[in-house]
Design goal:
single chain; 209 residues; alpha+beta; Outer membrane lipoprotein wza fold like; 2 domains; 5-stranded mixed β-sheet; 3-stranded antiparallel β-sheet
């Protein structure tokens, strides 16, 4: 009888401990301020990164026009140009740099650069880790929201604590914000939708229950 009572008391204490731990986790999650609803920058310009494909058009010089990938070291190469830095530049900046380089060989070159395959540098990506169906890094696009991100990663797993998720914002000095993914995805509460910014990391923890 005493042994059974001891087991019951022990089980009760374990459940109390788990409940206290869960409450502590919820308190920690809620300690972060809510993510700002509006964060998109109207003057955002895409920054080229490794893995991108760029279409380079040299006016009146089709033999110099080309589509090339940006190498992992951030450089591109083509006719008359070797190892030019592309990573970290906007398409317009790269076009102006190519005009300067080609000006040594042809008269008054006019270059247009169009990005046709988007990967982006790490500072431009939205990274999703934890209990998403398909955790991955996504290229940022203007006015991208949390809902867009969750659609791209296939939503939450069955074990996700969506309302305990945090958004780490590198552009704010790695400040963390709380986001309500359960409310957004599973309850359709559109008020839980917020803007994301280039470099954001969405961290989705596992639920304890």
């Amino acid at each position: 009888m005493l042994t059974r009572l001891h087991d019951v008391v022990g089980a009760a204490f374990r459940w109390l401990a788990l409940g206290a731990l869960a409450a502590l986790l919820v308190a920690c999650a809620s300690a972060h301020p809510p993510a700002p609803a509006d964060a998109a920058s109207p003057d955002y310009r895409y920054i080229i990164g490794p893995g991108d494909s760029v279409n380079i058009i040299v006016w009146r010089n089709p033999e110099l026009s080309m589509t090339v990938p940006v190498r992992p070291d951030g450089l591109i190469a083509g006719p008359l140009i070797e190892d030019m830095q592309a990573m970290g530049k906007t398409p317009t900046m790269l076009a102006r740099d190519m005009e300067k380089a080609l000006g040594t060989f042809i008269r008054d070159p006019v270059v247009t650069v169009i990005v046709t395959g988007f990967v982006g540098s790490q500072s431009e990506q939205i990274r999703v880790v934890g209990e998403a169906s398909k955790p991955q890094a996504l290229p940022y696009r203007q006015q991208m929201t949390l809902l867009d991100v969750m659609i791209a990663v296939g939503g939450l797993t069955d074990f996700a604590d969506g309302n305990g998720a945090t958004l780490l914002r590198q552009s704010d000095g790695n400040k963390q914000y709380s986001v309500r993914l359960n409310d957004l995805i599973r309850r359709g509460d559109i008020s839980a939708n917020v803007d994301v910014k280039p470099g954001d990391v969405l961290i989705i923890p596992q639920s304890w229950f």
